[in-house]
Design goal:
By secondary structure, this protein is of the alpha/beta class. The chain has 13 helices and 14 strands.
Length: about 375
């Protein structure tokens, strides 16, 4: 039997065929007008998705590189910061800040729990000298969405900046950088931007640039001032990932042809269909505030969660994500972002039902697919 592979992981995500094909195009030199035109087209497209008038800088790194760039460019050793640890990647903010000598107040949440604007206001009162609040738009490890608009309202009237990890969330859920008073926003190529891993993006508000100019953290490759200077010459400070940038240009063309608002709505429909499907067969969701990137589902009692993910991968060739430590085996994650359509959701739910039957879970087969189909049919355009 031919077994096709289906990628329903939260990154990397499936890529449009026309994006994939660009990887086979001949390479060209990057200090040329040809590259400069493509480079500026990509930066303009990124500004469209970031919804900002600020420049967006392209780094040849994964999203963690942009996280590090955010820390080393805005802080000095000893600066007080607040890091909202809402999962694996929220914890990474705190790890990076500590590695560079920041004074970190880490707010550790139970995975999937909410953190409100009012709670942030209380912490800011406790630490009035806070230079930066580091937060996450969407916690990829838990499937939870956070109130970035509310956080921006809290910090906008202070000297504190708001730094947001939009690596998985940007393009799937609203996060207008300028309107929501986000001072540093980062993202990455391998999620909703529908490009292979290897590029990350970062943008600074004027408020954040004031901190950049006074920052004494050590930096070289990630020095934002070098990127700002080079962008004026329509190029990058270091050798760029040329093929990835060309692929990102094509994906941004697709995103703009769809329209950002329509793209966000598309991800909402896929999320609603996935959640309806898993709940229709008696499975419970993890977070209290689910978003459009993925659906985190609790493993039912008596079922081996690690085995569930392995069967999905090895037998049915549907690549979902398991939970990360320290919750490995407790839940699994079905992603619905990037180049994914409604029938991909149906395929994923079908494989999940077949896997659960293999593991002896009792339910009425077909109900997950039926529930998802009802939402997809209603919203199909």
């Amino acid at each position: 039997m031919i077994k096709k592979r289906y990628l329903l992981s939260p990154g990397p995500t499936p890529l449009p065929e026309e994006v994939l094909s660009l990887a086979s195009e001949p390479i060209f030199h990057h200090r040329t007008p040809q590259f400069s035109q493509n480079y500026m087209d990509v930066t303009d497209g990124l500004k469209y998705v970031f919804q900002t008038e600020n420049d967006v800088y392209i780094l040849a790194s994964t999203g963690s590189g942009a996280m590090e760039a955010a820390v080393v460019n805005t802080l000095s050793p000893g600066d007080k910061v607040i890091c909202i640890n809402c999962g694996k990647f929220g914890a990474r903010w705190a790890h990076i800040a500590r590695a560079y000598g920041a004074d970190v107040k880490e707010i550790v949440l139970e995975w999937g729990d909410n953190f409100s604007k009012a709670q942030l206001a209380e912490v800011l009162q406790e630490v009035p000298e806070t230079k930066a609040v580091f937060s996450t738009l969407f916690a990829t490890s838990t499937g939870a969405l956070y109130d970035i608009q509310g956080f921006g309202e809290e910090v906008s009237s202070t000297k504190t900046i708001l730094v947001v990890d939009g690596i998985s969330g940007l393009g799937t859920t609203p996060c207008p950088m300028d309107d929501w008073n986000v001072d540093v926003l980062i993202s990455g190529s391998q999620k909703a931007f529908m490009t292979p891993p290897g590029l990350s993006y970062i943008s600074f508000s004027e408020k954040a640039w004031d901190l950049v100019e006074s920052s004494t953290m050590p930096k070289f490759y990630y020095d934002a001032r070098e990127y700002r200077k080079s962008l004026k010459n329509k190029t990058s400070p270091w050798s760029p990932a040329i093929s990835l940038i060309l692929q990102q240009k094509k994906s941004l063309d697709i995103i703009k042809s769809i329209g950002l608002e329509n793209l966000i709505h598309h991800h909402q429909i896929l999320g609603d269909a996935t959640r309806a499907g898993v709940q229709a067969i008696g499975l419970d969701l993890l977070p209290t505030c689910p978003g459009n990137v993925l659906t985190a589902v609790k493993v039912p009692e008596g079922i081996d969660g690690i085995k569930l993910v392995n069967i999905m991968h090895d037998k049915y060739k549907v690549y979902i994500a398991g939970a990360q430590d320290p919750h490995k085996g407790d839940f699994f994650r079905i992603a619905h972002l990037g180049y994914i359509g409604g029938f991909d959701v149906i395929t994923g739910l079908s494989a999940l039902e077949m896997t659960l039957m293999d593991l002896g879970y009792s339910f009425e087969p077909g109900q997950a697919i039926k529930a998802a189909e009802e939402i997809l049919k209603e919203n199909w355009q």
